[in-house]
Design brief:
alpha/beta, binds magnesium ion, 6-stranded mixed beta sheet, binds adenosine-5'-triphosphate, 6 helices, 4-stranded antiparallel beta sheet, Rossmann fold
Length: 220
């Protein structure tokens, strides 16, 4: 099976100014196939967010490597294939939704016309069209989460990393989001989703793995 994400010996030790260091992730080997949908579960503090942060390159690993579609995640071309929605997306409050998407499209190398088409389509799917001209600071938390999702999908990433994407999302929006994520299967989008509630995603996941104190448990 071709590989979308491969970690080898990937670990993270957080060093604090005071107190003893925290090993958030012990050396981890993980493979996610092209188009595979993986859920990562585990108690609070088990290392789920750390794993996504290392994968996307926001955190520097203590050891190990990350490869995205066979390329080191240190290369910009590898990271460009990732779509990422953090636990608590931070968006510029004064920027308007359509301005944000325009900038994201440009940064991803999309033409203005493609950006407009794709953004229009995604905003529609997420029922955000009436808010396209609104400043991000005037949106509710759930709506901002949906905008972050649109932003992550705009460049049609091959690997989608979602950190607890259902938190604070109302039931209709959940159903919508899960439907949209399911459709990415046609484009063979791989996915790593952290969650405390994999059942809520229906049949979205091909595989569920558990982290406990920074270690991967044996798969059931
Ligand atoms: N920036 C940081 N500095 C120091 N320690 C951190 C930092 N971020 C996380 N940690 C520690 O690393 C461990 C793993 O945290 P992480 O956020 O990855 O867990 P998580 O599985 O995502 O938890 P949750 O389910 O609460 O989101 C915890 O012990 C946490 O205290
Ligand atoms: Mg977390």
């Amino acid at each position: 099976m071709p590989i979308a994400l491969k970690t080898e010996g990937l670990s993270k030790v957080y060093r604090h100014a005071t107190g003893k260091p925290t090993t958030a992730l012990h050396p981890l080997d993980l493979e996610v196939g092209v188009g595979e949908h993986l859920a990562v579960i585990g108690p609070n503090g088990s290392g789920k967010t750390t794993l996504l942060g290392l994968t996307v390159g926001l955190l520097v690993p203590t050891s190990g490597t990350v490869h995205i579609f066979g390329r080191s995640s240190r290369e910009a071309s590898a990271r460009a294939r990732i779509g990422y929605v953090p636990e608590d997306p931070v968006l510029q409050p004064r920027m308007r939704v359509n301005e944000l998407l325009e900038v994201c499209g440009r940064l991803s190398g999309l033409s203005a016309a493609d950006t407009r088409d794709r953004a229009g389509d995604l905003l529609d799917r997420f029922e955000l069209t009436p808010w396209a001209g609104s400043p991000l600071g005037e949106l509710s938390r759930g709506m901002r989460q949906a905008v972050a999702m649109v932003q992550a999908l705009l460049h049609r990433p091959g690997l989608l990393l979602l950190d607890e994407p259902l938190t604070g999302v109302d039931p209709d929006a959940r159903t919508r989001l899960i439907g949209i994520l399911g459709e990415t299967r046609q484009a063979h989008t791989a996915m790593v989703v952290t969650t405390h509630w994999p059942e809520a995603f229906g049949t979205l996941f091909d595989r569920v793995v558990t982290l406990r104190r920074g270690r991967l448990m044996a798969e059931a």
